[in-house]
Design brief:
Blueprint (H helix, E strand, L loop, with lengths): L1 H20 L2 H14 L3 H26 L3 H8 L3 H32 L3 H17 L3 H27 L3 H9 L6 H12 L3 H11 L8 H31 L9 H39 L6 H5 L1 H19 L3 H25 L3 H4 L6 H29 L2
GO molecular function, one term: manganese ion transmembrane transporter activity
InterPro entries: NRAMP_fam
Membrane topology: Multi-pass membrane protein
């Protein structure tokens, strides 16, 4: 019975992380870069998967062994660092949640023709309902799994109707025509940047899956999360590639919608509505849950009322979108900053892995440390490069 419960929680954590990653930005980025890089985008996906796995395996393992959330580990590494990390995560999570709510509103608009604002309001109510009930954790796990399966199945159908040149995609994945650094940073930031990589790690901790004895399960769960997000990314890439290879033009105002519509007509457009809503609503839930998990250990009152704080987080995100609209420049700016959160958070975790007062007698595998250090250095370099290059353009 316990093993069955653990499998359910592990699946839930993996899907929570994956569906947190698969949001409106994920859909737009994937189709945009497929349009600009064509089959060579496969190489960017391959590089991002390798980096994602290295980052997530390190972070989830250290959280499990320390049996503490990331902000508490960071405060033990250097007093005050946990508060700084929490501030970065919460600010990024709130800004992205406004975009996630906007995406959910757009999905409802495509499906039923009502305004995106009203769709966002209804979606916010659905997300809040998950956390109102006492068994919020279990419902969140099941909801993430159901929406994850729905997104993957529908995108797979659209991929087949688009008839992509799979052979060319495979070749260019290993021998690309061009290598786009900004695309790699964007994909990694969108899959394991900011709050996303901690979504599943903190969920396992809440469910009691922790300690050295749980490491095999934790490792499986971390790789599964990246695997689920990557499957969705590959299906969407191939669907978009099929359209681009036919010489058809994607609508720049909504590239993913035009992929679905050009591949499968009006049915495809409605399928896009379902996928967009599922991707957005699960990201709303994941962002709110994980962002609040970064502050709830700072005071007993925050711990006691954390579910209501999550509800408030979703309500604020929804109201900002409904009243103000989507603050595109803020979202882009925070997106760039999100790419910089990963090297900071992963760097802190790698230092913590060698502090006995945090991890006890646990010995972190050397290959994992080396892998992690390479990711920290390369993502810091690429993140700064994209930030310096991107900010001036943003405010021109």
């Amino acid at each position: 019975m316990q093993q069955k419960k653990n499998i359910s929680v592990l699946l839930g954590a993996a899907f929570l992380m994956a569906t947190s990653a698969i949001g409106p930005g994920f859909l737009t980025q994937t189709t945009h870069f497929t349009q600009t890089l064509a089959a060579s985008f496969g190489f960017v996906i391959l590089m991002s998967i390798i980096i994602d796995i290295g980052a997530q395996m390190n972070i989830w393992r250290i959280i499990a062994v320390a049996e503490k959330r990331a902000q508490d580990i960071a405060n033990e590494v250097l007093p005050g660092l946990g508060y700084f990390l929490a501030a970065l995560i919460v600010a990024g999570g709130l800004a992205f949640n406004i975009g996630n709510i906007a995406g959910a509103g757009l999905g409802i608009n495509v499906l039923f023709g009502i305004s995106p604002e009203m769709g966002a309001l209804l979606s916010g109510i659905v997300a809040i309902a998950i956390f109102v009930v006492r068994e919020a954790g279990k419902i969140m796990d099941r909801f993430a799994q159901l929406m994850g399966f729905v997104m993957i199945a529908l995108t797979l159908y659209v991929m087949f109707t688009a008839k992509p040149p799979v052979g060319e995609a495979v070749v260019k994945t290993f021998v690309p025509d061009t290598i786009d650094v900004l695309a790699i940073v964007t994909l990694v930031g969108g899959t394991v940047g900011g709050y996303i990589t901690f979504a599943g790690g903190h969920r396992l901790l809440d469910a009691g899956i922790k300690g050295k004895e749980a490491l095999p399960e934790v490792t499986r769960g971390s790789i599964s999360g990246i695997g689920i997000a990557s499957i969705m990314r590959i299906f969407l890439f191939l669907a978009a590639l099929g359209i681009v290879a036919q010489g058809l033009t994607l609508d720049p105002s909504n590239p993913p919608a035009s992929v679905f519509q050009l591949a499968a007509g009006n049915i495809g457009y409605k399928i896009f509505g379902v996928v967009m809503w599922a991707a957005s609503i699960t990201s709303v839930v994941g962002a709110a849950y994980t962002s609040v998990s970064f502050i709830r250990t700072f005071h007993p009152i925050l711990e006691k009322y954390h579910r209501w704080i999550i509800i408030g987080f979703i309500a604020i995100s929804t109201l900002v979108f409904v009243l103000v609209g989507r603050p595109v420049k803020i979202l882009i700016l925070v997106g760039s900053l999100n790419g910089l959160i990963l090297p900071i958070s992963l760097g802190v975790m790698l230092v913590a892995a060698y502090r006995t007062k945090i991890v006890g007698d646990y010995k972190h595998p050397l290959w994992m440390t080396i892998f992690g250090v390479i990711i920290v250095i390369s993502m810091a370099y690429m993140g700064v490069y994209s930030l310096i290059d991107g900010i001036p353009k943003l405010f021109e």
